[in-house]
Specification:
Layout (H helix, E strand, L loop, with lengths): L1 E4 L3 E11 L9 E12 L12 E15 L11 E3 L2 H4 L15 E4 L8 E14 L4 E13 L2 E2 L15 E2 L2 E17 L2 E11 L1 E6 L6 E4 L8 E4 L6 E4 L2 E4 L5 E4 L4 E4 L14 E3 L14 E4 L5 E11 L2 E11 L2 E4 L2 H4 L12 H4 L31 E3 L2 E12 L11 E15 L18 E2 L8 E9 L1
Parallel strand pairs: 24-28
Antiparallel strand pairs: 1-2, 2-3, 3-4, 4-7, 5-6, 7-8, 8-11, 9-10, 11-12, 11-13, 12-22, 14-15, 15-16, 16-21, 17-20, 18-19, 22-23, 23-26, 24-25, 26-27, 27-29
Length: 464
Amino acid sequence: ADYNFREKYYLSGTVRRDGSSVFGPDNRWGVFPSVSAGWRISQESFMAGASFISDLKIRGGYGTMGNQLPVSTSNQFFLYGGDPSRSFYDLNGTFNSSLPGFRTTRIGNVNAKWETNVTTNVGFDAVLFDRKFELIFDWYSKQSIDLLFTPELPGTAGLASAPAVNVGEMSNSGIDIQLIYRQVWGDFSLEANATFTTYNNEIVAIAEGYDYFDSGGSRIGALNRNAVGGSIGQFWGYEVAGLFQEGDLTYDPVDEIYNPNEGVPVQDGQEPGFFRYTDLDGDGTITPDDRMFIGNPNPDFTYGLNLVLGYKGFDVTAFFYGSQGNDLNNHTLWWIDFWQSFQGTKSADLLTDSWTPTNTTARMPKASNKSNFSNNTVSNSYYIEDGSYLRLKNLQIGYTFDRSVLGNVFANARIYVQGTNLFTLTSYTGVNPEMQSGSDTYFGVDRGNLPVVKQYLVGVSLGF
């Protein structure tokens, strides 16, 4: 239902009742209402003197929406089956005489129900100075309740597929701003469209009895931890406080180990040139309790700028996009910066910027055949880098011929040159800060990302 009174007051309401057979009979249906309202202030009599305002509207909304996409069509059912590798058994004690068995292939959950997203937004639209400026502002809050998630099952559950269950709650909030400017000066025209978005994510709750779950398995363990009170997909591990120096340790030739000097925590595998981790709990020993959040792949904000310039028959279009405040896990360093991580292709920095007794200020640990806790077997902050970037994603320059020079053959004619991904400003040392892989709970990890592809085009457009 929609209501509009004198183009000044707007009210809209919607009620959805959605059903899905992926849920059991008791939870099949969900009801999701929403309502929004707007007030065009510029139409009020008290705004008559504000000639610089062409249009001004305040609006707000509250609504719910159901989600059932993560749920398998067989989620509510226990399924059974058999195959030679997992459920055939040699009960006779003779070779090649295994008997068919029967096992659970899927665990059912008849209690799964709709995931609900509750969204609230407040904003305004302003058109100013004879429509030369447009400003669109939104504050939003999105609460995801009864999140549908497929948890990892313990080994005692066997090889059965896990069901989707309703666990936890997550909160997202931020602001969206769009600013548009248009101007014409004789033969010259300009349109600039800028966008700015902030993003704050928090895991409010998980399942009963759980404060976190890990994602992103690797040769050195899980890289991302999703914990109550934190953001989704944060990086987890040990913080590197520096590299051990010869004055930090004393070598014991009998046991062939390095013992820490006074004030230096005990750490497995410690020796000069290896990582020295932060003793978070201050107990004098580096243990799993000293792990912490070491990075966040969620950006503080993203932004974009689209420029369109025209002069007589010439036109220039440029689109910039950037992300600020997000971290990346450059996991490719595990392969190229550590000699002990397979003797294949290595970073040139391993020769020039790794620790030696005469190069104690090096960034990288020393080259060694030892693989242990103090170098390449655990997740730590050595792999975490600032993933902020600004990229010129598209630039096009064109010229449209005047009709007077085309004669009777062509109705219109235009030539142009175009380039994509022409440059990227970033401090990230990997090949591309714009990550495309991962999942909802595991992202921002560079396992060998594809490099940026630059493309150049030359085009001609003719109309007859």
